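The protein record passed on below.

***
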Amino acid sequence: MAANLSGYVDSMESMAAQTEGGSIPHVLKVIAQRYVGDNPPHGPVYRVTRASAVRKGADHLYEFPLRSMFKEMEAGLRVYAWAKLWIDQPQEFIFHLRCYGQVKLHHNGDQRFGSSPEEEMSEADPTSVVLPIKLKINLLRGWNHFVLELGVGQEGNCGAAFGTGSRKNKPFHFLAPSDERDGEEGWIYTAPSAHPLNRIPGTNQTEAATGAEWLPAREEGKGRLDLLYGMQPGYSAYAWTTIANRTVSKQPVTISGTAYGPLQFIWQGKEVYAVREAGDFSLELGADPGSGDLIAHCRCDGQGWGFQLEDIASPNVELVLGRRVHGYKGKWLLLGPLSPEANMDSADYLAPGKVSADRFTNVFWTTDQPGAHVRPFLENELYGRWNYPLGVTLSGLLGSSRLLEREDLADYVAGHVEFATSTYAYSLWDRERFGAAGLNNQLSHIDSLDDCGSFGALAIMAERDRLIEGSRVVADDIAHYIMNVQDRMEDGALYRKVGVSPSMHNTMWCDDMYMSVPFLCRYAELTGDASYMDEAAGQLLLYKKYLYMADRQVMSHVYDVRNSKPSGTVWGRGNGWVFFSLAVLLEVLPRTHESYPSILAFYRDLAEGYRRLQGKHGLWHQVLVDAESYEESSCTSMFIYGFALGIRHSWLENPEPYIRAALTGWQGLCERAIDKRGNLYGVCKGSSWSYSHAYYKHDLGWNLNDTHGIGIVLLAGIETQRMKEWLKEKA
């Protein structure tokens, strides 16, 4: 995909053609508002997950361990597993499948795959050598139904693992497909049978309509907590609902029922009634218009615990679940069991994604049905997600909020960051309990610099303006990971011993300077510990040793550790990450630091090399040394950013050519890559790596409004505006 003669957009549609298109603040405002408007700040979606032998693994594939699920499984029998997946836009997507026995996969009622004996593997060691099968499936907009038909293979093995082929970026969670379980997360499955289904389900329908019985079994709650938690004398639990008054005046409410043990009712934060022993009870409350929290604190006395309520006999007042939970029609959520030593206020845990602080047992809200857990899931495309492109996107929004004096943008950024950081502790617990977290899929499972550094740096910056819950704990854990866990060469250079795919194993990417250096700089400022600044400077100089191409004054994209040589490919954005990171470091590194002269010289060498490669329209190209490759917006923005910052801080000995390059680059973006609605074109999608420039030029296309580019375009505009103001003041 290449730009046309006038760029990616017709000149009439370009940002530059608009009356205020020459105003950088106006451009920033339009881009920022377009992004925020397209990504509203929705919270997590709460769903029921039932206790089941089928659960996600760390790779976000659902595992079907048939041998342990059904001891009676034998040749000739088959098990069916059924789930559905919602897709917003039609797309071709790669799923991963491991076959431990005979496997057939059906999509929307049609068979898409059938295994051969050669494709079966041992469940005992499913990931050590054999890679999953990659299945490319055309997904429709709306519901997509998947059915696995599982049998015993030639070696006597059975089972499967199936799910997303992109655990980092698309950690899909499947939903229960039947009408009876609408809204629940997870797969349903049959017991082994010698009789095939009459028809493979491909649409929403009842379980009865399929002619089979489906598991896991569903049990109704009876208010008896011993059925949920067992009999645990001295332990307690909270039950939470709300009383909703649909009128405009205060209404009397009678709460009556049967207690199975000691019980206290807390209404609007105050204890209003106590039951000392099992028996019937009744209390009167006054409910103001709207809704209020009603909490029951249940204690186990060794004889029983819990309660059952009668229906409220009022047309205007009803009990309503305190938080919408898809797949649950009950009125109460439960938190327990809590140890006798627990000292907590239940009101503190009415907020989403918070595990109880009981150090003796960590618990989260459940339904009143045995085995039916409540879990928050992140289902927004972007808002609330934690990944490295969003780290730079939100950095751009945060900078724009300051330049434009727009507190609403700063609030939006803080809300996004806090979505992730405030649920960090919960997501670690959720991953441990359920195999893979329903939110914070990268933050809860950090195994690379991509997972932590970029967004971590943004979180530190965002908290300078306001307190963000959980931010400091996250920052400390990231610093520990970078300094003590991430793999290193013998000389201390960070590298990827294990990547997300085999081709990425044993590689060093120039991208990783952005994934580490800005965070180390921000963390050094946060803690006052200069060793993190030393580490940032040291890493940049080590990467120069491995990746700098002195003859061209540019960086090779990747160093192949296995073969001890650089790839020699000059990818635009990879070079941009390095230049951006150098600028961030130089802005905070003391001039008296022993590495400052070397870092400054490195910056100047790269600046000269990049300036020479600027394209005729002001933009840089996807392959920097190939003017026939497409004009790429994200690397263009990072070079503009680095030049403009260098002008303002007097890092460049001959600034005039760089001033022209920055201004020409910004004008080129507005004329050729940004339209009047704030859409951004020409941003290279996420990459792998290659020894060949052809991969970057022909196989690695661009996306519209890709988050790898939005934030850095905003930052480039901010620094260009500051440069212009600085030059004006200086003149």
